[in-house]
Amino acid sequence: MSGAIMRAERAGAPLLAALHACAFPADPWDADAFAALLAMPGAFALIAAEDAIPAGFVLARIAADEAEIVTLGVVPRARRRGHGTRLAAAAAAEAQARGAGRLFLEVAAGNAAARRLYGRLGFREVGQRRGYYPDGADALVLALALSPPS
């Protein structure tokens, strides 16, 4: 299902926090955390909407010629409708437009759905972080090569 992708500014930190809490109830980030991340140079956030209702978000940052998806989530009611794919692709396009040559992210090794999503977009495993998540789960480090902006 298609829908709008909108840019979120620092003032959108409470909405991002609410979406994060819905997507990740076991480890929610608060509005202050999102505001601090969005205040960092090179940071940006995008929100996907479905019928004008926020369905998911991505927060990313760029440093030099590399970018990182810090967090990406889709609320349960809107999952399996393409929002995660659209958000990851939009973050990649934004990072590429800002001059990044590679986009990185961490994903839980046991999160098969997310790993399939990122694999379809061309992300490849480049490393692993043992015990990375609060529950002790390992993270896989994935990277996507971005072509230079034209």
Can you describe what's shown?
It is built from 4 helices and 7 strands. With 150 residues, the chain is α+β, with helices and mostly antiparallel strands. It has a single domain (5-145), classed as 3-Layer(aba) Sandwich (Aminopeptidase), CATH 3.40.630. Helix 1 crosses helix 2 (31-38). The model has no long low-confidence stretch (mean pLDDT 93). The longest helix is centred in the middle third of the chain and has 15 residues, at 83-97.
What's the structural blueprint in terms of helices and strands?
Elements: E1 5-8, H1 13-23, H2 31-38, E2 43-50, E3 53-63, E4 66-74, H3 83-97, E5 102-108, H4 112-120, E6 124-129, E7 139-145
Parallel strand pairs: 4-5
Antiparallel strand pairs: 1-2, 2-3, 3-4, 5-7, 6-7
Helix pairs in contact: 1-2
> Looking at CATH, which topology would you report?
Aminopeptidase
Please give the domain count.
Answer: 1
Structural class: alpha+beta
Please state the overall shape, judged from the principal axes of the Cα atoms: globular
Mean pLDDT: 93
Strand order of the largest sheet: 1-2-3-4-5-7-6
Largest sheet: 7 strands, mixed
What top-tier CATH class fits best? Alpha Beta
Low-confidence segments, given as residue ranges, are: none
Order of helices and strands: EHHEEEHEHEE
* Count of separate DSSP helical elements: 4
**Strand portion, in percent?**
25-35%
Return Rg in Å: 14 Å
| Amino- and carboxy-terminal Cα gap | 29 Å
Number of strands: 7
| CATH homology-level superfamily | Gcn5-related N-acetyltransferase (GNAT)
